[in-house]
Structure formats: structure tokens, C-alpha cells
Amino acid sequence: xxxxxxxxxxxxxxxxxxxxxxxxxxxxxxxxxxxxxxxxxxxxxxxxxxxxxxxxxxxxxxxxxxxxxxxxxxxxxxxxxxxxxxxxxxxxxxxxxxxxxxxxxxxxxxxxxxxxxxxxxxxxxxxxxxxxxxxxxxxxxxxxxxxxxxxxxxxxxxxxxxxxxxxxxxxxxxxxxxxxxxxxxxxxxxxxxxxxxxxxxxxxxxxxxxxxxxxxxxxxxxxxxxxxxxxxxxxxxxxxxxxxxxxxxxxxxxxxxxxxxxxxxxxxxxxxxxxxxxxxxxxxxxxxxxxx
Amino acid sequence: xxxxxxxxxxxxxxxxxxxxxxxxxxxxxxxxxxxxxxxxxxxxxxxxxxxxxxxxxxxxxxxxxxxxxxxxxxxxxxxxxxxxxxxxxxxxxxxxxxxxxxxxxxxxxxxxxxxxxxxxxxxxxxxxxxxxxxxxxxxxxxxxxxxxxxxxxxxxxxxxxxxxxxxxxxxxxxxxxxxxxxxxxxxxxxxxxxxxxxxxxxxxxxxxxxxxxxxxxxxxxxxxxxxxxxxxxxxxxxxxxxxxxxxxxxxxxxxxxxxxxxxxxxxxxxxxxxxxxxxxxxxxxxxxxxxxxxxxxxxxxxxxxxxxxxxxxxxxxxx
Lengths: 292, 319
Prior knowledge:
- The complex is a heterodimer.
- By secondary structure, chain A is mainly alpha-helical.
- Chain A is built from 11 helices and 2 strands.
- Chain A has helices spanning 12-17, 19-41, 43-46, 78-114, 116-131, 134-145, 149-176, 179-186, 191-228, 239-246, 255-281; strands at residues 6-10, 284-288.
- In chain A, helix 2 packs across helix 11, helix 4 runs parallel beside helix 7 (149-176) and helix 7 (149-176) runs antiparallel to helix 9 (191-228).
- By secondary structure, chain B is mainly alpha-helical.
- Helices cover 76% and strands 0% of the residues of chain B.
- Chain B is built from 13 helices and no strands.
- Chain B has helices spanning 2-29, 35-40, 46-55, 62-74, 88-123, 128-140, 145-159, 175-181, 183-209, 212-219, 224-262, 267-276, 280-308.
- At the A-B interface, helix 5, helix 6, helix 9, helix 10 and helix 11 of A face helix 1, helix 7, helix 9, helix 11 and helix 12 of B.
């Protein structure tokens, strides 16, 4: 009925036209994501403070040699919390995006391969899922099942898999009608063999772009959830949570609010640039809707 | 022919809304805790709980309650709010009006602004106006609403003191009072929403400007303004319409964070309260409202596309 909230379409001409710029996007994006990943992993090596233990004597301090970005209202080092905060955001969003992508790719290919009633029923169901506001769905799931990491991964999967299914289905449609797939079918190969050997290699670029894009949306959604108080529980170091905790001190220690914002923005800009780079390199249009 | 296309779309739209209401109903059944116990408090007598369960029809099977709800919803009766004990429509009425006002400002400003910026970026591809606009829109889609709002509050409410940082009135605030405080929440939403539309408009403008009919119009010696407005713009708008529709529909959920930051008394604030208070009928209503908005926006975009592009008037091709 309607265009998917995010659809990818190939246009061979565009790839040639913008090849000049994709390399920069991809490189810059990959570096930004890699830096975020490394800083989060190496957090215990980079700082000697605890991200959780309060220090009443050092509360609400500005930047100093001891605390480069100052401290929050409980005296915890802001830099330390920002470094550790990447762990939660990255772990949740990478795993949620991975699950959504695997599920979406399999179902999307299956719909393109089977067509008929299976495809029709699945598409109508996805229309319905996509029409419910994502944040409301997430709030209900978290209230029902608690706000642990696995629950958020599950909820984000349910919310983002439908869009992935549609995109992958559209990409797979053009592949399954090609001669080599018909030949594979004629040889009597099953769905999984065809998926792995014929279809997947040809839509891998689309799947990769989807992965980077969904990652960035999940980071956005999960941090918004934490900000609203429905995600990570205090005292977990989480960027969204930090912004909501430190906002009241915006005039006193602005850095404690700005630092997690900058961290969030670099990670998401990085993911978006990487998605852009891959898409441009492979001549895929990214048509993006704000279906967060 | 055209009528059958529209009828088909409308039927699918109804099907989608119905399926969405069913999915949400099932999901809401999973909310923890016995509703009756929750409303009456922990030390309620079993008799009182049983009586309330009967009153709320909680003793009946779920499918029967869904059918009851559906029957009511069709006639505009969405049940009773568990918190205010008022019919849903009157309990949500003011919040709806307030969010409607916010959405109106956001859509009018946001869509106009992003279309103009998208066209400018597309026409000046890879030169500085485009690099500036594309850069800002990449950042716009890369930061969560709460960060945009926080920065806006820091600059315009705290440093410059041009606008209030929060709305102090409840949901019965007059339109005049709301209009004074509406600008920062509206600006936060415009930044996030415009980013996507700008990017789409830029891409399709580039595509269209490279097409044969635009070259043809230029060769015929038409002025640049006429080529852009009459030949390029309508065609570049086509693929952008769906992105606009999705982003307008996104507002129903997107307002949650922004309304909570500015204490804006709209449907987003109501949604958060209802989640906290387990107000299941209210959540069901808001979810269906979201689905309705999504479907209607997409339907309108499809119809607008059909009116802009005669090729879409044959069924089958448009799917």
C-alpha cells in the first residue's frame, strides 16, 4: 500500500556520479564508530575513577586536572561516565540491530521467494506494526517486562524488523526472478541453500546499509527511553540517563550535559556516514523516513 | 479506474488500522499486575476487587472484551479512562487540541522550510550551500530530540531568555498562553523532522534536474525559475511525499520526549502518564490514534502522488 519507512533502491547511474565522495563518508564514519567502540572497551584502562561510586566531597565541580570534564551532582567523574556509557549504548544497539537484521533478512527473502499468500499476509501485518508509534510500543513492552538489556533488545527487534523485512524483500525481489535462481530451483535446491548461495551475496550491500542505519536509530531510541526514565536504571552510566540527570545543572556545569550529547552525536553521525558511504559506493538510494 | 485505485487503498488502510488495534490490544494484556488490585490499592478486600473486575469486565475473556471495545470504538466510544474516570475522548480532548496546535506549527514551518532547503541543496549540489545544508541535516537526524531541546533551552531560554523553558499551565491552558511557549518545542521537532525531508528532497531534485525533460525545457530557452518551478519541482516532490507523510505521522510518538522536556500538556505527556498509571484504555486509544494518523498521512501522500503523476492512475503499477 505505502512505501516502506525506509526503502533502498538501486540506481546504477548515481554510483558513478558520486563516487568521488563516498570514500570520505565511509572512512570518516568507520573511524567515528571505531573510536567510540575502542573508548568504550578501553574505559577501565583510560580512567581510574568508578563510573558508579558517588563521591560527596567532589560534587558539582567544573573541569579541573583531576576531573577533565568536571563531576555530576553525586561527585562522579563525568568523563568516566561518558566512557563507560558507550558500553551500554553499543551493546544494546549492536545486538538489537543484529537480531533485527537477521530476522528481517530471512523473512524478507522468504517473502520474496515464496510470494503468494505468505507475502500478502506478512505485508499486511507489517503495515499494522509499522503504523503503531515506536516509542509507545517500546514504553509498553518495557513497562510489561522490565527495562533489562535483553528486553530492550527484544523490543527494538520487534519495532525495527518490519522495516528491514520490507527493504530486504524489495531488494530480494529483483534477485529471485533472475535466471541463476531459477536454475538453482530447477536443480532442486532448498530455500536455505538458495538464500545463502544465490540471494544473500547479491543483497549483502543493502543488508549492510540497513544494519548501520538501524543501529543509529536504535541508539537514538534507546537513549530517548533512558532519558524518559524507562531505559537504563540509575546508577548505570548511560548517555541518555546522564543528560536527564545533569540537565538541572545546565547553568552550573554545562559540560556534564554537553559531553554525553557529543558522545551520542559522534556515534550516530558515524553510523549514518558509514551507511551513506556504503550506499553511495554501491549505488543504492537511501530513502529515509523518520519512523523512530 | 481511478475510483477503484482509491477504494483499494482505503480498504487496505482500514485493514491496517484494525490489525494495529488488535496487536495493541494483545500487547496491552501483557502489562503486569491485576488492574483492579492496582486501582484499589494493596489492602483491598477480595470482594471489592471482584466487584471492580466485574465493573471493568475484566472477568470476561479477552476476545470478548476486544469485541466490546471494537464495537464501541466504531461509534466513537473508546471506553473510560481508568485514571480520570471520564470517557476517553473527553479525557484526551484538551491534550489532543494542544498537540494538534503544536503539530500544526511544526508541519507548516517544518515542511515549507525543508522543501525550500532541499531544493536549494539539490540545485547547488556539492557547492557550499549544499554542503552546509546537508551537513546540518545529517546532524539533525543524528541527535535525539532531547539533545536538540536541551541545547535550545540552554541558548534561547537560559542565555538569551527569549522564550520560556517550560509550559507552566496544565492541559486547560488557553491557545494564547500555549502560543507563547510553543516555539522551543516546535523548533526541536522541526529540526529532527526537517532533516529527513531535506535529504530526500535534495536527492530527488538532483535526479530530476539530470533528466531529459529538464534538459529539454532548458534547451527550449525557458528561464531557470520556470524550469525549476514548473518542470522539476512537481516531479521531485513525488518521492518526497511519502517521506513527508511518514515524518508527519511520526509526530504522534515523536512528541513524547519533547513534550516531557517542556512540560507541554499534549498527547505525549498524556501517553507517559498513562504508561505510568497503567491506564490501558487510554493507551489503546493513543495507539489507535497513532495508527490512524500514520495510515491517513500515507493515504493522503498516495492520493497526492496520483494527482501529480498520471502514470499512477492504473492499478497494479502503483503497489
